[in-house]
Amino acid sequence: MSIPAPPATSLRPLMSGYAPPRAGLTLSPVDTAALPTDEALMLAWAGGDLPAFQALYERHRRRLHGFLLRQLRDPGLAEEMFQDVWQRVIAARAGWQPDAAFSTWLFRIAHNRLNDHWRAARHRPPAPADAEARVEAVVDGHTPETELSGFEQRRRVQQAMDALPAEQREVLLLRLEQELSLEEIAEVTGVGRETVKSRLRYAMDKLRAGLAP
Asked: Which residues have CB under 8 Å from 211's CB, separation 6+?
């Protein structure tokens, strides 16, 4: 299921001096191997390099926003928490050390923020009444039968994901959508690697059962 990207203006409340790219620019192919690592960008930004922060933000904004939206199922709340996570990144930049991958650190902040939210709410909110209508319909020339079949499959996947316990759903999203390793997920969630494996296995079993005809 596709996840809506966060608004392109999400960075503006976070940092002053942000200048959006000029329209009409043509981008040339980029050698990704030559790009600076997340950790190098974070250290550069800690030293006052604002473009380094902008590069980090652009690399991770879609992944982070998608993860939060999947967990919260409320676009407004996901956007609010998205902004809060980046504010915490900004606040922590001076003392940041590359003890873990930047993405692991970022998602650990998101994980802790989600835990704070669930503790305050004391329950996970139900899916909105119009949840099915919010599923993005892709108009690409397919027949109505194909569109209906695709919609039904996405709806069933979302329902099966929603039925998972929160800790199992989280490790599944971190593994399948964010492509974190088991060790990185363990760092994010604060549990052992074997616990991550167990949660992931149970989540996959339940997901398969929920999608079985």
From this structure: 156, 157, 160
